[in-house]
Design brief:
- It is a single chain.
- By secondary structure, the protein is of the alpha/beta class.
- The protein has three domains: 5-70, no CATH class; 94-315, Vaccinia Virus protein VP39 (Rossmann fold), CATH 3.40.50.150; 339-554, 3-Layer(aba) Sandwich (Rossmann fold), CATH 3.40.50.
- 27% of the residues lie in helices and 25% in strands.
- It has an eight-stranded mixed β-sheet, with helices on both faces.
- The radius of gyration is 28 Å and the shape is elongated.
- The termini are far apart.
């Protein structure tokens, strides 16, 4: 049936007249009839309340303006007008505000920046203080695509989880993000659906009608009814319309959820979508219609995700300015890396941190002995006030254990980072340790130009500038840099990379005016670093380290 503007006005008048004549006992039945008729009105759905709002529409070949009853509300075209009282109710019953940063309570005790998150952060040019949405957030920790952005780069966001057991754990983690205790609706209106969790793996669950056959039906609990809302309902409740990263991993209804999003009202820069049972082509077609381009298909131990980016996406914060000094935006600039270079580095010279079995509560590192208490590490920890959730770089990482300056930070202070080692035997040992860090299978270059030659010869042994490795994993901030020798310092762009503390090793066990350490000190002072101390090696042949820290006013 086709509804004209006159039909709508007549219907409103008829309803008003009938309300005066109907006895109170029949008003509830009339309300049901009203809802039925409102469905026919499509984008002009009326909502009963105290105030009125004008709505513009089109009928046939001419425009009109009519007045529909409504509360104070926010409207999304084609999804109706949502009453403010409903938004307030939803916010009260289903949304938990971000926790203070000192309330973080992780079970696994690590921050994992895997391949997917690293690539997304790279697309966003290492952005700080961004906003994420993670749909299917589970407990906020296991295989989280957003935790490292929050802890390492100051992001906040919205975590959405409908499974009751996972939601309980999520709320206990104290994440600095909103938590929505509901599922995302696979239809463009509020609804309820049955959600089931796996009996053995709580990270696995789904809306029952979208079961993908991941295991047998009897592997899952019976399920329970869960409230589901379209994404824009939740965003209205928290007052957000600009999202940097949207992660969707819900084991089935990804395509249906994406279809409900009013992309003309909400700005989303990067989207990652778990791909299930060949629905990639439909998802790609849908997102391309909204101005997105598929950038990459990533495969990890547990999930396969397609990454999309808005084609007219323009970032203009300070992080982007720093990034543009190092990475060419189009066809390349002399001395600048290209996105192709970063892909080559990531594919051929970097190993991501392994996550490990999802059913294991803590990482199982394969260490030969107890964690070595490095005197250099102790000095650094004191300088950084025993900081937790930091990012390190250790060049010449050896086997990742013997005399490591970063292992204690990783285990006791819950850091992650980048370990650089090129010697084949030591590299094999390093990878076997199962450390929570990226591993660069190359040496660090003392010549910045080396990285720009990768496109022509990507797989030979390379010595790469430090910043090229960090750019490839989307990390522009380093809390601690451990260098075995000072030769690479001149290749580090200190005006664009943020490095708080540096230790530089020398074979000398003393610090005098003729030593290399004096030259290092003079060089680093140009960039706002101050010598903080000297840790002497415990033997004639051992390395000694001089430690420098960036003046806080220069950070």
């Amino acid at each position: 049936m086709h509804w004209t503007s006159m039909d709508i006005l007549k219907l409103s008048a008829m309803k008003a007249a009938l309300c005066l004549l109907l006895p109170s006992s029949l008003l509830s039945a009339f309300a049901i009839l009203s809802l039925y008729n409102n469905d026919k009105l499509g984008p002009w759905m009326s909502v009963y309340g105290q105030k009125r709002v004008e709505v513009e529409g089109k009928s046939g070949s001419w425009n009109f303006t009519t007045t529909l009853p409504s509360t104070d509300s926010l409207s999304f075209e084609n999804n109706g007008t949502i009453p403010q009282q409903d938004i307030d109710m939803m916010k009260k019953q289903y949304l938990t505000p971000p926790s203070a940063k000192d309330q973080l309570n992780l079970t696994r005790k690590e921050v994992w920046k895997g391949p997917l998150t690293s690539y997304v952060h790279r697309l966003l040019k290492g952005k700080k203080n961004g906003f994420f949405i993670e749909v299917g957030a589970n407990d906020g920790e296991i295989l989280s695509t957003t935790l490292s952005l929050e802890l390492l780069s100051g992001w906040t966001g919205l975590l959405i989880e409908g499974l009751p057991g996972a939601l309980k754990n999520l709320r206990q983690k104290g994440r600095n993000a909103w938590v929505a205790g509901c599922c995302l609706s696979p239809v463009p209106y509020a609804t309820k659906r049955i959600m089931r969790g796996h009996k053995t793996y709580p990270a696995v669950g789904h809306i029952k009608e979208f079961f993908l056959g991941l295991g047998r039906n009897d592997n899952y609990h019976q399920g329970s009814e869960v409230q589901c809302y379209p994404l824009h309902y939740l965003l209205l409740a928290i007052g957000i319309t600009n999202i940097d990263y949207f992660s969707v991993d819900v084991d089935g209804p990804e395509l249906n959820i994406l279809k409900t999003i009013p992309f003309d009202k909400i700005s989303i820069k990067v989207i990652s979508v778990e791909i299930n049972k060949g629905d990639q082509s439909e998802i790609t077609k849908l997102l391309e219609g909204h101005g997105y381009k598929m950038m990459k298909y990533t495969k990890e131990d547990y999930t396969h995700d397609a990454v999309y980016m808005k084609t007219e996406n323009k970032l203009s914060d300070n992080t982007t300015t720093a990034w543009s000094k190092l990475v060419a935006s189009n066809n390349g600039k002399p001395g600048h890396l290209t996105e192709q270079d970063l892909d080559t580095i990531s594919d051929n010279h970097l190993k991501p941190p392994p996550f490990g079995p999802i059913e294991v509560a803590t990482r199982i590192r394969k260490l030969a002995q107890n964690v070595w208490k490095s005197p250099v590490t102790e000095f650094v920890r004191n300088l950084l006030k025993n900081k937790t959730y930091g990012f390190f770089v250790e060049a010449w990482a050896y086997d990742g254990e013997s005399f490591s300056n970063t292992l204690q930070l990783e285990v006791e202070n819950i850091w992650t980072g980048l370990l650089v080692e090129v010697a084949p035997t030591r590299l094999k040992e390093l990878l076997s340790k199962q450390r929570n860090a990226w591993v660069a299978t190359c040496c660090l270059s003392s010549e910045e130009s080396n990285a720009t030659e990768l496109a022509n010869n990507p797989v030979v042994d390379k010595c790469l500038p430090l910043h090229s490795l960090l750019l490839a994993i989307g990390q522009l901030e380093v809390d601690y840099l451990s260098l075995g020798i000072p030769g690479v310092l001149e290749t580090i762009p200190f005006d664009t990379l943020s490095v708080k503390v540096i230790s530089v090793g020398t074979h000398s066990n003393k610090f005098d005016d003729d030593d290399d350490t004096t030259k290092v000190q003079n060089y680093l002072e140009k960039f706002g670093y101050k010598k903080m101390g000297f840790v002497q090696g415990d033997s004639e042949h051992a390395f000694s380290d001089t430690i420098f820290m960036k003046d806080e006013k220069s950070l």
